[in-house]
């Protein structure tokens, strides 16, 4: 699948935003603190930026409102509905924190739960597509949810460090979430690499009875919408390298930094810097992970295009 | 609506494509384009039409595949072969492209099972194209809406056309008679009979899409070498021999005229 | 709200339907052009049309994009930059026509042969040929010489008709159909429709072709033969059929020259010729009375073997004895030829067995009394339901004439010509050799301001009819009908530029061409041809080919090399006639012709070429075009089509003649004729009565019908010429036994190629190169979705073939380590090209191939100069020389069939080497500047204004 930057940015940013919103909703940060106020605004900003970037790839964005109508059957519609609905408790919570400097459990917990559901809906857009075998697994929503939680925690650690309120359990919690997310992701990727293809040129053409089937000529010589959208193919070596970078930056480095932070309870500028570094590493790693999420996924249609 | 109609639909209109006859001439491809670029919905646009990266929206395309029999290639039976493979929307009964649509633009008609896009409602998110394992949907980049085979809905019900022409453009134009249109829900229809006789198949049955369109696989072939023995029989009967023998036979034949 | 209710189901398609004839290839299907708001809404096949019966191919369906292509020329052009720069200035038609008239008038007065007028994909040859004849130049032909003249010449000289588009398999009845060397070609839709019929009936379809695509892909059996060896395969089948005694002796005696006596007098000028009586009638040996009597004598029982003494004391044998002795030789046994052809002996036997079985065990009988030319009444038609079709795979080799003759001989031996289930003639064929003219163009045939004494093209009956001077030098610029190519019945357009450049046999002043892309895909040695067109005489500074006039509708590569460009219309903007005088669209059951008419008015300053030619003819005061006082006889081509008469009552169109429009074939001109055609769907069809439908070559009812329709003035039955005496006359000349004597330089070649019985020899281009150095063949195939170079300016078709890879057999890929997308050098004795490769298994193991004419020169056809067609597309033409490699004596002859001069495109031998990866194919040429063309849009949304 083509790793469109708009969609990679959308899932990464909105995942981080919803993760942060969950942590805020759970009241993990002191509502009175300036950093928490910033955090609320940041969460909303990340979610909004993500949503906006997701509309960038629409052919007719002016009709985007129509996407709210089919929540009974379409995960994309559900995601849209949930995203908008989730703004209500999140904005409420943000108002309370920013203006009144207080935390109220009702919008907080509601916001956290709805954020979780929204991320789940996003993941299910992908997981529901049987045509993309790599995505069509429960592990996909598990990854999205765990990465959102882990991202939210890393962001929370950073904000806590900025406000000097970092506690070791928070840092350890972030490490645990990171470990969980990456463990599931490793399983996800192992499945991708180990599973035989669901559909093959033989099943796609029904001609396997005659012999091994290979594409002889594409229908048209130049690229078309389908091959641009779904024909992206990342080199095996390139993917392996990128995966290592994703794991190193997204998992190993933040875990080490967070453990350092948690164990030694560094505060002040040093702590905030370490936390910032962990966050930066994680986001970079996550972008690589998301890029691979698309780039390594093979669409069934490529059986017709020799991909 | 985005939800699928209750199945089965009373009619299952679709195509039967004969892979034994298709010579890969692209007639259906181009005729489809010209009919539909002025017909249902937005024109099928072409980007950079006279430039280096020419590309356009098409609703039907012909692929070519090569089959290489397993093992060593020996003689006729083991030889590699080419099959030309036209492909457009299969109007699946369990159309995944319909259920993923967030706006309701994609729908399957309850009466005849045709899968359509209501272009005024389409936001061009492209998810339906992702959901389709067959590559039947292509975004029109100029209009920003998803295009797909309509089974020429503006022909098959078009009362301004002669009855005989109320058939999809690809079927009408196919010089090799490799495309057939009809109701696959009616076991007595010509297309259903063809499917039954020729062992018509579904593409990617494992995707669970229940395609309506069927493909007729290439017929079994009898190698020429299997007939070689026949010639030897003729020769034995006629006491082959050399030219002298031949002219003797010839004289006998002339006597019989 | 239910969206489905918003679908408008019954919108009228358009405002109006105009029925005309397609011209997206040579198939000439009927089309319905739907016009909406003055634009084309849709083009579909015409269901009533006899050629396509409603279907339409990819090309025809892309007519919209052809019609509106930005590559259309807009106005007459005068070259202002150097040749090949593409720099032009638009001029008025008056200036263009007076310039052309001035150039041509001077030539006509001075020395008419200094005009070479050659037309390419011309469908108006009866006009262009007539014009050239009235002009008086001997140098006229259409493009048949580089197209498929071997098909036509071998067919006419053997059975009086040809495959090509002059006959067709009996699709309704045939049970075994064998096709040789046909990819997309003439009759493209009828062949597809025919194959579908065979498939439906369960008839067997065998394709002999090195490449298994298209038709071959759906064949029941594919014989992936080595290129150039089809003749051997056919003769081996003949060998097996003779051995198995599976031949139709009755048919041979009745309809062929099998019984004709061949003089056996070695060393004399008549050796190998037919014994004839005083009236020139061929003699046979009558075995009951032991007399030698003329062929056709009532009640005669002809011998097919046995030596007989003629009245003059010489000995003779029936030609069939020579035939049988020749092919019974074990050198034609399947085992003996398997290695050369690459076809296993069991497959050859199987093919022969199936032909024999179907012909003789699945015989058809149609009860329909008919009378043959001897007056004998038959109860019905006996059908041998084996049919054949062949095209370029046979004809584009330098042994193609003989190979095609071999195939016709095979058809005749099993009695399967013009019978039910066999190959059937399409009127006005069959037509015996004797009904064709001999060629004209010798010095005594033309002169200053005088028409040529007769038609340019025809069939020499012997060396005495060659167009040569006393020294044996060619009279024509293309050297057609010279010792180089004695039976060059369609001329040799592929030699014109090279010969004119070399001044061999003489220089010319004006080269006038129509629709022939000689500066690109229509020439062998393209780069060399470009140099020749650009080359100047150092002494005078003049171009070696001083003036080039060119007419085309589109900015093709050739336009850039013209000095004066006459812009043609598109096929939807002009009148045309698909005439029985030229290349009609008849079916075996019906006589047919058709027209085109302007279904749209031109929106540019362009004129139909035929009308322009009439105008120039009138300005030049040519007889037949002007009344002698400079007044034009015809207003335009439409007027000519209606009023021109070739013989009294015979005009370009056969339908709706006579003042009331009720006459068919013969009749007075009818002013309303074109209107009647338009009302009838732009075609005319006259059914052949059932008693005349088969055995047309010997069927009295058919012959009478042919006379009635005006094909001939007297019946012209055909006796199939298995043994071809004309060829033997050339051999006698080459043996020094018969005047005029062939020059020493050509004797060996003539002795090899002019066997009076079908023969196989190694293609000349192959025989002269080292086969270890060049172990592979390289071929092109015409794709179904692109007609020659005509299609890259078409925004839809070019998406299907935007560039062309070289397809390489899997084993060669493995040996060289080539993968899809790698690059390779392909080298011949003449040149090298660097191309992108793709792997293929379903192909003859020594054959590389690509799609024909996809590669374009940068800047041509109004395409972006970085288009894939120019950057990655390529031509094999760069590897093919117009001359053969030098012989031992240093002589270089044309790379053509030595009999007919057919360009031997497929003789090419090459080697392939892996190359470094590349972004562009090699060779590349400087981009052409584009004539002021229409603006090139960045996006097309054709039909958006009609969107619902």
From TrEMBL, chain A:
Protein name: DMSO reductase anchor subunit
PANTHER family: ANAEROBIC DIMETHYL SULFOXIDE REDUCTASE CHAIN YNFH (PTHR38095:SF1)
Domain of life, per lineage: Bacteria
Pfam families (alphabetical): DmsC
Keywords: Membrane, Transmembrane, Transmembrane helix
Record bears the keyword Protein biosynthesis: no
Residue ranges of the TM segments: 7-29, 41-59, 80-98, 104-127, 139-160, 166-184, 242-264, 270-288
Record carries keyword Transmembrane helix: yes
TrEMBL record, chain B:
Keyword tags: 4Fe-4S, Iron, Iron-sulfur, Metal-binding
All copies of domain 4Fe-4S ferredoxin-type, residue ranges: 13-43, 80-111, 113-142
Pfam assignment, any one: Fer4_11
Gene3D superfamilies in UniProt: 3.30.70.20
Classification via InterPro entries: 4Fe4S_Fe-S-bd, 4Fe4S_Fe_S_CS, ET_IronSulfur_Cluster-Binding
Name of this protein: Fe-S-cluster-containing dehydrogenase component
Originating species: Aquamicrobium ahrensii
Automatic annotation (TrEMBL), chain C:
Keywords recorded for this protein, A-Z: 4Fe-4S, Iron, Iron-sulfur, Metal-binding, Oxidoreductase
SMART domains: Molybdop_Fe4S4
Residue span of region Disordered: 430-455, 918-948
UniProt subcellular location: Cell envelope
Domain 4Fe-4S Mo/W bis-MGD-type span(s) in chain numbering: 15-71
Keyword Metal-binding assigned: yes
Coiled-coil residue windows: none
Record has Cell cycle as a keyword: no
Gene3D superfamilies: 2.40.40.20, 3.30.200.210, 3.40.50.740, Dimethylsulfoxide Reductase, domain 2 (3.40.228.10)
Swiss-Prot/TrEMBL cofactor(s): [4Fe-4S] cluster
InterPro entries referenced in this protein's UniProt entry, alphabetically: Asp_de-COase-like_dom_sf (IPR009010), Mopterin_OxRdtase (IPR006656), Mopterin_OxRdtase_4Fe-4S_dom (IPR006963)
Main subcellular localisation: other
Residue stretches of biased makeup (Basic and acidic residues): 933-942
Record PANTHER family: DMSO REDUCTASE CHAIN A, TUNGSTEN-CONTAINING FORMYLMETHANOFURAN DEHYDROGENASE 2 SUBUNIT B
Family under the similarity heading: Belongs to the prokaryotic molybdopterin-containing oxidoreductase family.
Protein name (record): Anaerobic selenocysteine-containing dehydrogenase
Native source organism of the sequence: Aquamicrobium ahrensii
């Amino acid at each position: 699948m083509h790793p469109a930057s708009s969609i990679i940015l959308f899932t990464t940013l909105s995942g981080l935003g919803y993760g942060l919103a969950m942590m805020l909703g759970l009241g993990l940060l002191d509502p009175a603190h300036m950093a928490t106020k910033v955090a609320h605004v940041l969460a909303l900003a990340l979610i909004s930026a993500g949503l906006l970037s997701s509309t960038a790839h629409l052919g007719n964005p002016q009709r985007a409102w129509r996407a709210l109508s089919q929540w009974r059957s379409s995960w994309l519609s559900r995601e849209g509905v949930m995203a908008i609905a989730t703004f209500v408790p999140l904005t409420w919570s943000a108002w309370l924190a920013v203006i009144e400097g207080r935390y109220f459990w009702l919008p907080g917990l509601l916001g956290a739960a709805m954020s979780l559901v929204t991320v789940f809906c996003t993941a299910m857009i992908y997981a529901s597509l049987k045509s993309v075998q790599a995505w069509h697994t429960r592990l996909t929503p598990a990854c999205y949810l765990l990465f959102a939680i882990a991202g939210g925690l890393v962001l929370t650690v950073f904000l806590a460090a900025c406000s000097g309120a970092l506690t070791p359990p928070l840092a350890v919690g972030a490490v645990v979430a990171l470990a969980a997310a990456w463990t599931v992701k490793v399983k996800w990727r192992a499945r991708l690499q180990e599973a035989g293809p669901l559909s093959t040129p033989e099943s796609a053409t029904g001609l396997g009875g005659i012999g091994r089937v290979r594409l002889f000529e594409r229908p048209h010589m130049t690229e078309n919408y389908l091959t641009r959208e779904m024909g992206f193919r990342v080199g095996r070596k390139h993917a392996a390298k990128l995966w290592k970078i994703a794991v190193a930056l997204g998992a190993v480095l933040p875990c080490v930094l967070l453990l350092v932070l948690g164990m030694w309870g560094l505060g002040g500028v040093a702590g905030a810097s370490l936390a910032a570094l962990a966050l930066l590493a994680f986001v970079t790693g996550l972008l690589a992970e998301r890029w691979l999420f698309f780039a390594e996924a093979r669409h069934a249609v490529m059986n017709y295009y020799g991909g | 609506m985005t939800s699928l109609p209750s199945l089965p639909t009373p009619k299952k209109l679709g195509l039967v494509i004969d892979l034994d006859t298709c010579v890969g001439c692209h007639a259906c491809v181009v005729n489809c384009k010209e009919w539909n670029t002025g017909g249902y919905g937005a024109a099928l646009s072409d980007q950079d039409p006279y430039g280096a990266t020419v590309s356009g929206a098409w609703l039907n395309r012909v692929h070519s595949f090569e089959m290489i029999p397993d093992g060593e290639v020996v003689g006729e039976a083991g030889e590699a072969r080419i099959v030309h493979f036209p492909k457009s929307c299969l109007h699946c009964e369990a159309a995944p492209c319909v259920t993923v649509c967030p706006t309701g633009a994609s729908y399957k008609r309850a009466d005849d099972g045709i899968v359509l896009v209501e272009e005024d409602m389409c936001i061009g998110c492209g998810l339906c194209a992702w959901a389709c394992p067959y590559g039947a949907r292509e975004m029109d980049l100029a209009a920003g809406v998803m295009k797909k085979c309509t089974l020429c809905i503006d022909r098959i019900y078009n009362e301004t056309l002669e009855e005989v022409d109320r058939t999809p453009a690809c079927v009408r134009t196919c010089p090799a008679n490799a495309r057939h249109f009809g109701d696959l829900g009616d076991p007595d229809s010509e297309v259903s009979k063809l499917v039954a006789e020729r062992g018509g198949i579904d593409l990617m049955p494992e995707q669970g899409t229940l395609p309506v369109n069927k493909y007729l696989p290439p017929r079994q072939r009898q190698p020429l070498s299997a007939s070689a023995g026949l010639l030897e029989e003729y020769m034995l009967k006629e006491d082959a021999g050399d030219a002298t023998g031949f002219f003797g036979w010839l004289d006998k034949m002339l006597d019989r005229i | 709200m239910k969206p489905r209710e918003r679908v408008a189901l019954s919108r009228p398609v358009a405002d109006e339907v105009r029925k005309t004839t397609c011209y997206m290839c040579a198939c000439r299907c009927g089309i319905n052009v739907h016009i909406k708001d003055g634009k084309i809404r849709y083009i579909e096949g015409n269901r009533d049309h006899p050629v396509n019966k409603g279907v339409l191919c990819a090309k025809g369906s892309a007519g919209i994009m052809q019609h509106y292509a930005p590559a259309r020329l807009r106005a007459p052009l005068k070259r202002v930059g150097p040749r090949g720069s593409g720099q032009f200035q638009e001029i008025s038609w008056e200036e263009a026509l007076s310039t052309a008239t001035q150039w041509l008038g001077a030539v006509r007065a001075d020395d008419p042969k200094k005009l070479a007028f050659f037309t390419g994909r011309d469908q108006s040859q009866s006009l262009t040929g007539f014009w050239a004849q009235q002009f008086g130049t001997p140098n006229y032909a259409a493009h048949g010489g580089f197209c498929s003249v071997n098909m036509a010449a071998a067919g006419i000289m053997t059975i009086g008709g040809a495959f090509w588009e002059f006959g067709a398999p009996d699709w309704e009845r045939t049970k075994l159909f064998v096709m040789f060397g046909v990819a997309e070609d003439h009759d493209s839709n009828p062949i597809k429709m025919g194959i579908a019929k065979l498939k439906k009936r369960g008839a067997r379809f065998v394709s002999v072709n090195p490449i298994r695509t298209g038709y071959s892909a759906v064949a029941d059996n594919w014989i992936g033969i080595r290129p150039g060896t089809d003749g051997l395969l056919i003769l081996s089948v003949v060998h097996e059929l003779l051995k198995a005694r599976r031949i139709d002796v009755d048919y041979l005696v009745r309809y062929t020259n099998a019984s004709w006596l061949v003089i056996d007098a070695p060393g004399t000028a008549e050796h190998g010729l037919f014994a004839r009586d005083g009236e020139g009638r061929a003699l046979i040996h009558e075995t009951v009375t032991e007399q030698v009597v003329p062929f056709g004598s009532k009640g005669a029982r002809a011998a097919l073997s046995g030596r007989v003494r003629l009245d003059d004391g010489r000995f003779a044998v029936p030609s069939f004895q020579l035939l049988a002795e020749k092919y019974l030789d074990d050198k034609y046994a399947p085992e003996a030829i398997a290695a050369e052809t690459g076809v296993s002996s069991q497959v050859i036997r199987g093919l022969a067995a199936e032909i024999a079985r179907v012909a003789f065990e699945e015989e058809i009988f149609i009860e329909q009394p008919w009378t043959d030319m001897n007056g004998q009444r038959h109860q019905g038609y006996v059908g041998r339901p084996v049919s054949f079709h062949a095209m370029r795979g046979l004809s584009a080799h330098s042994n193609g004439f003989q190979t095609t003759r071999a195939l016709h001989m095979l058809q005749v031996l099993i009695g399967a010509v013009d019978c039910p289930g066999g190959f059937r003639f399409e009127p006005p064929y069959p037509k015996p050799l004797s009904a064709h003219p001999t060629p004209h163009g010798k010095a005594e045939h033309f002169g200053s301001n005088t028409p040529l004494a007769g038609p340019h093209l025809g069939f020499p009956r012997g060396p005495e009819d060659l167009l040569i001077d006393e020294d044996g030098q060619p009279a024509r610029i293309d050297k057609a009908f010279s010792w180089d190519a004695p039976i060059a019945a369609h001329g040799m357009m592929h030699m014109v530029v090279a010969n004119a450049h070399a001044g061999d046999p003489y220089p010319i002043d004006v080269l006038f061409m129509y629709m022939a892309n000689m500066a690109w895909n229509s020439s062998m040695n393209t780069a060399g041809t470009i140099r020749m067109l650009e080359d100047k005489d150092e002494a005078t500074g003049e171009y070696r080919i001083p003036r080039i006039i060119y007419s085309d509708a589109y900015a093709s590569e050739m336009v850039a090399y013209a000095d004066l460009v006459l812009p043609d219309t598109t096929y939807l903007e002009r009148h045309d006639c698909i005439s029985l005088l030229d290349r009609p669209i008849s079916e075996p059951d019906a006589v047919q012709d058709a027209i085109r008419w302007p279904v749209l008015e031109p929106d540019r300053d362009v004129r139909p070429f035929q009308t322009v030619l009439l105008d120039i003819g009138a300005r030049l005061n040519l007889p037949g075009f002007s009344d002698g006082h400079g007044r034009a006889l015809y207003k335009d081509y439409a007027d000519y089509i209606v009023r021109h008469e070739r013989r009294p009552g015979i005009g370009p169109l056969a339908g709706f003649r006579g003042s009331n429009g009720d006459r068919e074939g013969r009749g007075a001109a009818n002013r309303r004729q074109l209107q009647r055609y338009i009302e009838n769907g732009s075609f005319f069809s006259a059914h052949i009565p059932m008693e005349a439908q088969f055995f047309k070559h010997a069927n009295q009812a058919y012959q009478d019908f042919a006379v009635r329709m005006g094909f001939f003035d007297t019946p012209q039955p055909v006796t199939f010429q298995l043994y071809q005496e004309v060829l033997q006359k050339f051999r006698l000349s080459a043996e020094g036994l018969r005047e005029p004597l062939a020059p020493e330089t050509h004797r060996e070649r003539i002795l090899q190629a002019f066997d009076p019985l079908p023969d196989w020899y190694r293609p000349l281009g192959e025989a002269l190169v080292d086969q270890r150095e060049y172990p592979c063949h390289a071929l092109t195939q015409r794709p179904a979705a692109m007609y020659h170079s005509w299609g890259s300016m078409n925004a839809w078709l070019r998406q299907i073939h935007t560039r062309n890879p070289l397809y390489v057999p899997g084993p060669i890929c493995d040996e060289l380590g080539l993968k899809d997308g790698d690059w390779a050098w392909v080298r011949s004795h003449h040149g090298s090209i660097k191309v992108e490769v793709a792997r293929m298994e379903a192909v003859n193991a020594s054959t590389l191939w690509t799609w024909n004419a996809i590669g374009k020169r940068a800047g041509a056809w109004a395409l972006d100069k970085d288009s894939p067609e120019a950057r990655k597309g390529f031509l094999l033409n760069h590897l093919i020389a117009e001359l053969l490699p030098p012989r031992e004596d240093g002589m270089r002859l044309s790379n053509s069939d030595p009999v007919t001069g057919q360009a031997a495109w497929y003789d090419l031998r090459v080697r392939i080497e892996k190359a470094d990866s590349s972004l562009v194919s090699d060779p590349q040429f400087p981009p052409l500047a584009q004539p002021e063309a229409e603006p090139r849009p960045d996006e097309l949304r054709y039909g958006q204004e009609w969107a619902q």
